Amino acid sequence: GENVEQHPSTLSVQEGDSAVIKCTYSDSASNYFPWYKQELGKRPQLIIDIRSNVGEKKDQRIAVTLNKTAKHFSLHITETQPEDSAVYFCAASGRGSTLGRLYFGRGTQLTVWP
Amino acid sequence: NAGVMQNPRHLVRRRGQEARLRCSPMKGHSHVYWYRQLPEEGLKFMVYLQKENIIDESGMPKERFSAEFPKEGPSILRIQQVVRGDSAAYFCASSPTQRDLNTEAFFGQGTRLTVV
């Protein structure tokens, strides 16, 4: 099956700085790569996703890039704010999966200091 | 649309008891997925169901765990004879029926199971 690696496991930044989280995947058939934000005790919430026919996608302060050849994708958060503090998970769809069947990284605990 | 509803939110069971976790998908969704999240880890896929069918249970432990999604009512994840290692957050996600793949799966709030 698909194997998703995520780094770093923890990330601390000053408010206003940028944060970058990186993930790699193993199955070249994966074609959907969502990112989820999970606050303590709450459900994962989709913040951005990218499909394999696109190299980059941006939504206000959040952007995701995908390199299919190298099988890695990254989340970029600019102008970070304390409310961005949470655990972020990357995921990949794997081979022949019907969405929702996702393979997750282990998560990155992002802390934004005011 | 109330979103994906899971209950209970918190469940405490003694070792050896049974745990039943319920998930009602979003309106119009007939695909349900169960994930388990151990403390400080990512979500691990357990099972994928459609109405009255188990499509993929490759992530389910071979013993004590079962899941169903009946024609009427919520999806149920059942854990028999719980052990301390079953303590985790169990999340349900649902997605639409459309054949076009790769649309967002929506997660419920999760059930936090504690085995004492």
Write the layout of secondary structure elements.
The complex is a heterodimer of chains A (114) and B (116).
Chain A: E1 4-7, E2 10-14, E3 19-25, E4 32-38, E5 45-51, E6 56-59, E7 62-67, E8 72-77, E9 86-92, E10 103-104, E11 108-113
Parallel strand pairs in A: 2-11
Antiparallel strand pairs in A: 1-3, 3-8, 4-5, 4-9, 6-7, 7-8, 9-10, 9-11
Chain B: E1 5-7, E2 10-13, E3 19-24, E4 29-37, E5 43-50, E6 53-56, E7 65-68, E8 75-79, E9 88-96, E10 106-107, E11 111-115
Key words describing this protein structure:
A: 114 residues; mainly beta; 6-stranded mixed beta sheet; B: 116 residues; 7-stranded mixed beta sheet; 4-stranded antiparallel beta sheet; 11 strands
What does this structure look like?
The complex is a heterodimer of chains A (114) and B (116). Chain A is mainly β and 114 residues long. Chain A has strands at residues 4-7, 10-14, 19-25, 32-38, 45-51, 56-59, 62-67, 72-77, 86-92, 103-104, 108-113. The radius of gyration of chain A is 13 Å and the shape is globular. The termini of chain A are far apart. The mean pLDDT of chain A is 91. With 116 residues, chain B is mostly beta strands. Chain B has strands at residues 5-7, 10-13, 19-24, 29-37, 43-50, 53-56, 65-68, 75-79, 88-96, 106-107, 111-115. In chain B, a hairpin with a 2-residue loop joins strand 5 and strand 6 (53-56). Chain A binds chain B through residues 1, 6, 31-32, 34, 36, 42-46, 49, 51, 89, 93, 97-107, and chain B through 31, 33, 35, 40-45, 48, 55-56, 58, 91, 93-95, 101-110.
